[in-house]
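Batch manifest, entry 17 of 40.
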Amino acid sequence: MVFRKKQLLFNRKKPAGPDSEVEKKSPSRINLQYKPPSTETNPTLEDPTPDYMNLLGMIFSMCGLMLKLKWCAWIAVYCSFISFANSRSSEDTKQMMSSFMLSISAVVMSYLQNPQPMSPPW
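Output type: structure tokens
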């Protein structure tokens, strides 16, 4: 009995006009792409955090390399990770990777020159 009701509901004729419900729900009319607002038309959507962290990472890397300060080198690695995590996929990856490699090299060089554990900066 239940099967017969389901079959009757399933076999009902659906309207075939252009404004019918079948036409409204057809997969060809569904647009699932998300288009984020462009930053050219609205410059307030641009997030400067990755750029600032990239610059800070380079400054701390150079301080870690030149002044042999391990804590500066570790802060540079931290800034590089933040810059990488907050960046967009359309940004230049070469600059980000060079900043990251510079900070890693600052950590490696500071520990090669002085292998003792890091002393507190205060």
